[in-house]
Design goal:
Helix content is 78%, strand content 0%. The chain is an all-alpha fold and 237 residues long.
Length: 237
């Protein structure tokens, strides 16, 4: 554990000196403030001018806020990991006492853990709907795992930070799963179950907490395992 913290502290000092990575740290809370104050204003505008309300989708907006927290935090670490991989530093860490597992835990695991707690705070402070604490914790847990998967996807297929930035935009497609349970009622919507975000959408819709927590966790872990294997193969070549 001491090795993990040491490797994390080295990386965190690098992030503090990089404006692009640094801005991703407070970004989840800025998103929370924006959603919390602007969506009710938008809702009132729509009611007054179009007799239409988006209040029924407040739980979905809460889910998006909580989902973005761990994703943005792990993404900043993913960019750092790409820089270290490009410079050969990641290979160095694998042969040090820290080892590859401590290295990945420091670069991805700790930011995801911090994102988990940030997600809970955002869900309790900037909420627009009434979600129970158990749903918020379960959602934040799966969201943190999904964030790890996205970070590993980026570092597994991008060769440098420029490619990582481009790929990070494309990974936004994977977030479409959270919308499917809300807007698709046909039975074929279950195809989206390969996306961890699908089970997050089911969670905030009020479906079975235990089932969706389990399936979301398993799906995320499969993604993490696949992309981690791809990343390790890449840096070993």
């Amino acid at each position: 554990m001491r090795s993990t913290i040491k490797v994390f502290s080295i990386g965190f000092q690098v992030i503090l000196r990089d404006a692009i990575m640094l801005v991703l740290i407070p970004a989840p809370f800025l998103v929370g403030v924006t959603f919390h104050y602007l969506l009710p204003l938008l809702n009132r505008f729509l009611i007054q001018h179009f007799t239409f309300t988006i209040e029924r989708y407040y739980a979905l907006s809460d889910g998006l806020m909580m989902l973005l927290a761990p994703i943005l935090l792990t993404m900043s670490s993913a960019f750092l990991l790409l820089e270290e991989s490009d410079e050969g530093i990641s290979s160095y860490f694998q042969i040090t006492p820290a080892g590859r597992h401590h290295y990945l835990m420091a670069r991805i695991g700790i930011p995801a853990l911090w994102g988990f707690f940030c997600s809970i705070v955002i869900g309790k402070v900037f909420y627009l709907s009434i979600l129970s604490l158990s749903v918020i914790v379960a959602f934040s847990f799966v969201a943190a795992l999904f964030a790890c998967a996205i970070a590993m996807l980026i570092v597994a297929f991008a060769n440098n930070r420029v490619e990582g930035l481009a790929l990070s935009k494309l990974t936004g497609i994977t977030m479409i799963g959270i919308f499917v349970p809300w807007f698709v009622s046909d039975s074929w919507r279950w195809i989206a179950g390969i996306l961890p975000t699908f089970w997050l959408g089911e969670l905030i819709r009020g479906a079975s907490l235990g089932t969706n927590l389990f399936l979301g966790t398993i799906t995320s872990l499969v993604w993490i395992a696949c992309f981690t294997k791809r990343f390790l193969q890449k840096i070993n070549h």
